[in-house]
Amino acid sequence: MTPVKEKVQKVSLKRLHYAVMTDESNETHGEVKTLTMPIELTLTPNFSEATFDAGDRVVANEVQFDTISITGSVADLPTEVQADWYGHELSDEKGLIMNVNDNPNYLAVGFESGSKLVWLYKAKFKPTEEANTTKRKGEIAYKQSGFSGEAIPLEDGLLKYSVRTDDDGVTVTPETFFATVKKPNVTPAP
User: Fold this and answer.
1) Which residue of 89, 112, 144, 173 is 20 to 30 Å from 14, comparing CA positions?
2) Residue 120: pLDDT band by 50, 70, 90 thresholds?
3) Within 13 Å of residue 4, how many CA atoms lie on the same side as its CB?
4) Could you state, in order of their start, the residue ranges of all structural domains in the chain?
């Protein structure tokens, strides 16, 4: 039996990267932009499952990976980012115009968590509840911006790609991984 090399992972969320999908049919993305103050990001895999019963027992079981639900929050969601994510228009004065006909853009979403670098290739986000409250004497309170959405697979089924920079033989760095929307290189078997 060969032992598997395990490493302790620290809680971390350094940066959140995104790129708007500029061509859905060719699945290409524009410039990668970076948010430097993410607070949290939760990825929840979604599955379709089925069992087949025969002879008073389960004789087959299928599990198919479908999508990934995403929820998160950041310290600030700049106006430009809201326009990119949610499909809103900017006014001549650089104000954000929200219209019922707005359609969120597909995005590639990447993040750095400790030694792990991740890209999700095709996600749409929607804003979460916005709460506003009065400032109270003697108190300081901070506000955060939330978002939620779902990542769906590309045409070839590719949904998520992750690399751990502390694995043996890994030469990628956060700077090279997030310079563009990085897709995996796989050499075909002979």
Assistant:
1) 89
2) very high
3) 2
4) 27-130+138-170
